[in-house]
Amino acid sequence: MRKNCFAAIPGNFSLDGSAQVLVATRLNYTGFFTIGGPIEPLGRLNYIDGCSSTVLINPLRRGEPCLNFLYVPPGVSQTPHTHPSLRIGLVAEGSGTCQVDEGTLNEEAVLEGGTMLV
């Protein structure tokens, strides 16, 4: 795999090399083996409040995992919203704030490139 690529690998796998990666697992996941990329610099679909999104890996059935790329332009403040399922976010680059029920994550050291939100 190369920089800015992604994969869905059902079953056992191993990693070898030198890179920063995000690995998310789900027990008994039986999706399709998928490798794709590179990820585009901007999303293809309009999203909330001027953001854009690209679905990288579609869920096979409702409630199964998917992978989306979300681009948030500088200066954009999204309308508060919820999702019906778990979301995991990885800040690839840039910085910003995130408002949650428990308060605001607003220190640049907390929400910057390489930060993961669950």
Description of the molecule:
The chain has strands at 6-8, 34-36, 45-46, 52-57, 67-71, 89-90, 98-100, 103-105, 116-117. It has 118 residues and is mainly beta. It has a domain at 88-118. The strands form four sheets. The protein has a three-stranded antiparallel beta sheet with strand order 3-4-5, with no helix packed on it. A two-stranded antiparallel sheet has the order 1-2. A two-stranded antiparallel sheet has the order 6-9. A hairpin with a 5-residue loop joins β3 (45-46) and β4. The protein is globular. The two termini are 25 Å apart. The relative contact order is 0.17.
Which residues form runs of ≥5 with pLDDT under 50?
none
Can you count the beta strands?
Answer: 9
Helix content: under 10%
- Amount of beta strand: 15-25%
**Tertiary shape:** globular
Name the helix and strand elements from N-terminus to C-terminus, one letter apiece.
EEEEEEEEE
Mean pLDDT: 82
Count of alpha/pi helices: 0
Straight-line distance between termini? 25 Å
Radius of gyration: 15 Å
Give the helix/strand class: mainly beta
* Major sheet attributes: 3 strands, antiparallel
Order of strands across the widest beta sheet?
A: 3-4-5
Index terms:
mainly beta; three-stranded antiparallel beta sheet; single chain; about 120 residues; two-stranded antiparallel ribbon; 9 strands
Outline of the structure:
This protein has 118 residues and is mostly beta strands. It is built from no helices and nine strands.
How are the secondary structure elements laid out?
Blueprint: E1 6-8, E2 34-36, E3 45-46, E4 52-57, E5 67-71, E6 89-90, E7 98-100, E8 103-105, E9 116-117
